[in-house]
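lol forgot to send this yesterday, sorry. struct tokens for the thing we talked abt
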């Protein structure tokens, strides 16, 4: 549940889950911008938390600093009490309270073991999903445990998705994500594990309690 004063501005960001925003009291203006990264200037990789924030102030953009934002496509509505809005995963959205507001948002996935992953690993979400995953890689990069994650990457990736989404990636999906991560890290081979582990080490989403 969110309680916000009039004029409260929630920075433009995307979430890694499909969600609903439900208005109980007051009105909110919601702007949706799709999944494109080039027009929205996401924070640098390694930023804290589970979401990715845009650097653009969508209510007062500086086109000298963020010139590509002029090409962004915006879908805008005012959400009133009793109404709800579906916000797809990895879609940029910015919310402003027009009154003292009370609202609820909740997130959900798809039924099955691989439907959601299959959906977000294709256009239009693939680019934003890839950036989100690499952001988590960068969050973990300076930790000693990261080398163990890399050494067990083909097992750590499925364990990560099982934990956060209860989904099981296919072998081809795991290979695609391993290549994505290795290309980002500019490595041609993964380190060797010297200790046999009962369970693969997990990537961790770091900074969940942090807010700007």
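and heres what i got for the seq, position by position
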């Amino acid at each position: 549940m969110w309680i916000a004063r009039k004029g409260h501005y929630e920075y433009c960001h995307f979430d890694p889950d499909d969600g609903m925003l439900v208005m109980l009291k007051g009105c909110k203006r919601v702007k949706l911008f799709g999944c494109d990264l080039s027009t929205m200037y996401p924070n640098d990789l390694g930023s804290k938390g589970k979401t990715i924030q845009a650097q653009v102030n969508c209510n007062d953009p500086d086109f000298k600093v963020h010139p590509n934002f002029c090409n962004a496509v915006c879908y805008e509505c005012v959400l009133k009490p009793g109404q709800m809005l579906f916000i797809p995963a990895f879609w940029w959205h910015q919310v402003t309270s027009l009154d003292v507001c009370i609202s609820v948002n909740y997130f959900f996935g798809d039924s099955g073991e691989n439907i959601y992953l299959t959906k977000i690993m294709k256009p239009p979400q693939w680019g934003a999903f890839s950036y989100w995953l690499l952001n988590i890689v960068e969050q973990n990069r300076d930790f000693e445990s990261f080398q163990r994650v890399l050494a067990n990457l083909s097992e750590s990736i499925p364990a990560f998705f099982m934990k956060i989404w209860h989904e099981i990636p296919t072998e081809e999906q795991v290979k695609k994500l391993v290549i994505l991560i290795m290309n980002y890290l500019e490595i041609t081979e993964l380190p060797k594990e010297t200790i046999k582990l009962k369970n693969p080490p997990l990537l961790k989403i770091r900074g969940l309690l942090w807010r700007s």
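Residues 126-140 form the longest helix (15 residues). anyway ping me if u want another try
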